[in-house]
Amino acid sequence: MVRDHGGGRFRVEFLVLGSLAVRRDQTPLELGGPRQRAVLTMLLLHANEAVSVAQLTEAVWDSPPVSPESNLRTYVAGLRRAVGDRLVTRPGHGYQLVVRPGELDLDAFDRLVRQGEKALADNDTEAAAELFALALGKWHGTPSDVTAGPLLRAEFTRLQERRLAAVEKFAKAAIDLGRFDDAIDRLRRESAQHPLREELWALLMVALDRSGRRGEALETYAAARRHVVEQLGVEPGARLRQLHQVVLESRVPSPAALSAHRQLPMDIAEFTGRESELRRLCEPGPQSTVVISAIEGMAGVGKTKLAVRAAHRLVARFPDVQLWADLHGFDADELPADPAAVLESFLRLLGVPGAQIPESLAERAALYRDRLAGKRALVLLDNAAGEDQVRPLLPGSSTCLVLITSRRSLLGLDGVKSVFLDVFTPGEAVALLARIAGADRVNADREAAVRVAELCGHLPIAVALAAKRLARRPQWTVSDLVGQLERGGLGARGVFDLSYQALPDHQRRLFRLLGLHPGEDVTAESAAALAGLTAYEAEDLLETLLDEHLLQQHTPGRYVLHDLLRAYAAEQVMAAEPPPARATALRRVLDWYVHTSWNSAVRLNPQRKLEIDTADPAVHPLAVADHDAALLWCDTERANLVAAVRDAAEHGLAQHCWQLAQCLWDFFNLRKHWSDWIDTHGVALAAARAAGDRTAEGRMLITLGIALREVRRHDEAIECCHQALAIFRAIGDRTRQEPVLNNLGIAYMATGRLDEALACYEQSAEIARDLGHQHTEAVLLNNIALLHADAGRFDEALPRYLRALEIRQEVRDPYSEAILLNNIGEVYRGLLDFPQAVAHVDRALETFRRIGDLYGQAESLDNLGLALDGLGDRRGAEKCWLESVTLFEELGEPKADEVRARLG
């Protein structure tokens, strides 16, 4: 409620779920133009929290003005006319909008969704469906009446994701209740608006099929496939294709099985044995501390599969959050995961914007523990290198459970419950063999089955591969398999050989080439580039390798090699492929990453010019439909992209290395992946230097310097700028000297070295002038003049301001022109030329009044009063100051007290 001047109370509603609106007693309030509305939107999305000037700047502008603080003060002032003292200034922290319970539709939406989730957990599906429907009823369109910068666009994306998650929860509940028409109506609308979100199509297929409309379900799949193929150039994901097949066979699974909102990897149907270990992992732990269970054992023994099976059994007890990370503790091709990077990923999943994630490991760990406090959360940490890697990733709340897998003992962790996993017992090994190859065949020759288990060393991964061999050869007996294994050798290596050698040539070739693929996993498209195939051909081969147990799949459409098989594939590619063939394959897959990254980068920032080489004709990069699709692809491929930069450097492909790093710049900046930015650009810089490419070296120094400046490593940023400047001067590239000098000036300003900053700005402005870059010249001249004026060097500031004014008048920007006129008036006052000061400030005041800028009017009235006072016109000065005080008070600006003091 807002109190009026008569002591009454108004009812206030803040609406952000759609077109922005504020209503007081049902009456809509005037909220100003698109940028002012963007400020209000950002404040509402962070209601009752301080939002910094830097955050608001990134929320409102793609390319901020020279002095965004002034513009923001104007917008805040305009908003205060609507919301009054609800919008408060937090000195040093920014602005905060005070919202009371029941006033913000976003709060009501979140509350109803939480209640719906609780109803589901209590098995009250009918109540859940009603609550989700009420939550969705809070939406009244999509945000479209604000001018959004990158941060606000990211906020809108996250907000839309929350809405779509609620849509899917509602649809699943409605389907379970048999309310098919409700689900179908909602899903038809949503899939039309979000045609690349496969979960919506999948649920629509389920609803249609269950309501007896099988033909429409199949038409729905055809429509989904058409959108995905036309917009992304790929086939739908494996789950949607499998559902299509299920619908064809008239066996539709429960919609709960289609959930895409958990971070856990997929469970496997063929899991066998380990019952005692499962019981131990799933038994309730102490209520006073976080429960930590560590599964330890050798490679290939099934630690991950056991952990995933246990995690899925435990989800009902830990429904709020399920997080998963592969820590790469023993990966021959990757360094162990940095706990700070893992925490960054977890925090993003928990809703923390990238710009708000702290730099230090300790601060990230503290924020992570805070976000999980009181939540029923399950954290699965796979393939841990040791205790030091794991400790920062442990929650602090007794409501949480942690499952860890490692090849090492983790007894150094306080309170850990260790479960040592040995190879299978003979009975478990034979049971897995029977499960995959068929119980009848195994029971027909138990003795041979036991021998197979022995020859596999009872190692689960080897037993599974051998069983798959047998299953694919119906003419074989178990004794035939024994003969094959005895000729191939004992243990996993012999089984790998047996499986690999039995593959057709084209499958063997793709399998071994995967040993060259950068990063954690592979898609049909990246595998196609690696092997010089089409995506359709590659997907068929990958699915076959998946069927053969030579690949795993934690996420639909993404394929993973087990550590042992990755090492085996790397051995085979070195043995079977000559160096030129290996080099061609690696170059092709890096081409694919570079060019798909370029397609994404131009969607994320259409203004930036990127230069890359032509791709191999056999490579078909993904076409990226829009900004959201580009961001999604980069998010999904992030680990592989970072690995690709490193791989390119390690194999001497310097151009691929620095071009890929260049293409990732906007993504890293948008998502605030500072560590990845600094890492990849540092690697690319070294690669450019090793190749002797001076231009590339200079470019990488520029972008690396920006990243270092963003994390306040100013000395290193300054050194990068100096090195880049020396390079571009040496090769005579003035176009690139201009941004280097500008960035160097910014870094100097941040460290208080104003004279050096001015020198850099002056040089950059001269270059901009020579090259005809008028916009850059005006920005630099204004910055230069401002620094001179702040230092009292008015005779130095004046000519720069006047030249900037000429340029602004040419480009017809009245707002910037008014600011310059007011600044020029201040300079003339400093020079004691009061008539000129009055003349320029009068023009500024006239412009501010014409465009309706109250803050600008208040500032120029104060300035005009000082100029008139200098002329001896005290009466005229006091009139200006009185009007200025009135405006500042109306705007809620503390400067009102400063101006009031001039009145004596």
TrEMBL record:
TPR repeats: 738-771, 778-811
InterPro entries named in the record: AfsR-DnrI-RedD_regulator, BTAD, OmpR/PhoB-type_DNA-bd, P-loop_NTPase, Sig_transdc_resp-reg_C-effctor, TPR-like_helical_dom_sf, TPR_rpt, WH-like_DNA-bd_sf
DNA-binding region: 1-99
Residue span, OmpR/PhoB-type domain: 1-99
One Pfam family from the record: BTAD
Organism superkingdom: Bacteria
Single GO term (MF): DNA binding
GO BP terms: phosphorelay signal transduction system; regulation of DNA-templated transcription
Keyword line: DNA-binding, TPR repeat, Transcription, Transcription regulation
Record keyword Mitochondrion present: no
PANTHER family: TRANSCRIPTIONAL REGULATOR REDD (PTHR35807:SF1), TRANSCRIPTIONAL REGULATOR REDD-RELATED (PTHR35807)
Family: Belongs to the AfsR/DnrI/RedD regulatory family.
Entry protein name: OmpR/PhoB-type domain-containing protein
Gene source species: Lentzea guizhouensis
